Amino acid sequence: xxILALTPAERQKIVDNTLGxxxxxxxxxxxxxxTGLEAYxxxxxxxxxxxxxxxxxxxxxxxx
Length: 64
What we know:
The protein is an all-alpha fold. It has a domain at about 10-15 and about 30-55. Helices cover about 60% and strands about 0% of the residues. It contains three helices and no strands. The model has no long low-confidence stretch (mean pLDDT about 90).
């Protein structure tokens, strides 16, 4: 187990803070993000996985 591994409770706190930030900005997460965040809390996904999921869904690759 990596030294910096987080417990599910610590990951849940991160998710709760993130969702709170979205609410302050009057935004809401998509259903796919909610599913991804749940997988993160359960230790099935990393933050890198979540970022890749979001980028693949919303960011268009542009080549010069």
